[in-house]
Write a structure and sequence with these properties.
The protein is an all-beta fold. The chain is built from no helices and eleven strands. 0% of the residues lie in helices and 48% in strands.
């Protein structure tokens, strides 16, 4: 239904910044993205569960995990079907594979910090490595 492709990951030193992008594409005449009201960023470190980082609704409302509040900013360009995650003041504990995903519920906003079980259409991920 939809393909998500993340990019922008890399290796940085602590205190540095990265901007992740997530480009969404779908088949012609599909209404999947039109009915997607919420998208999120997640991350997964080796040996750990996938955790929600931030989410944004179509109306622009956002929510962040406590661990990234004040450092990360999620944004979107609906015209370009692109999701972004600006990451500043990076810490070694931010090291993980980062994924974007769409909210499973159609025509619905999501609330609170995103839960991986509520999202689908995962991209392949982009690696972020922060060294001390």
């Amino acid at each position: 239904q939809v393909q998500l492709v993340e990019s922008g990951g890399g290796s940085v030193q602590a205190g540095g910044s990265l901007r992740l992008s997530c480009a969404a594409s779908e088949l012609p005449y599909s209404t999947y993205l039109y009915s997607t009201y919420c998208m999120g960023w997640f991350r997964q470190a080796p040996g750990k569960a996938r955790e929600g980082v931030a989410r944004i609704n179509r109306d622009g409302s956002t929510s962040y995990a406590d661990s990234v509040k004040g450092r990360f900013t999620i944004s979107q360009n609906n015209a370009k079907n692109t999701l972004y995650l600006q990451m500043n003041s990076l810490k070694p504990e931010d090291t993980a594979m980062y994924y974007c995903a769409t909210y499973r519920a159609r025509w619905a906003y999501c609330t609170g910090v995103p839960l991986a079980a509520d999202f689908g259409s995962w991209g392949q991920g982009t690696q972020v490595t922060v060294s001390s």
